Amino acid sequence: MQDVILPVFALIYLGMALGGVPGLKLDRSGIALLGVVVLLATGAVPVDRIGHFVDLPTLILLFALMIVSAQFSAAGFYDWMAHKLADAPGSSRRLLALVVAVAGFLSAILANDIIAFAVAPVLADGIRRRGLDPRPFLIGLAGACNAGSAMTVIGNPQNILIGQVGRLDFWRYIVACAPAGLAAMAIVFGVVALLWRRELAVAPKPADEAVPPFDRRQTAKGAIALVALVALFATPFPRDIGALVVAAALLASRRLSSRDLVGSVDWHLLLLFACLFVATGAFASLGLATDAMTWLVNHGLLPDRLAVMAPLLTVASNLIGNVPSVMLILSLWHDAPEGAMYGMAVISTLAGNLLIVGSLANIIVAERAATTGVRLGFAAHAKSGIPITILSLAVAIAWLAARGWMAML
Question: I want to staple 400 with a disulfide (CB 3.0 to 4.6 A). Which of 153, 176, 233, 405 is the partner?
Answer without folding.
Answer: 405
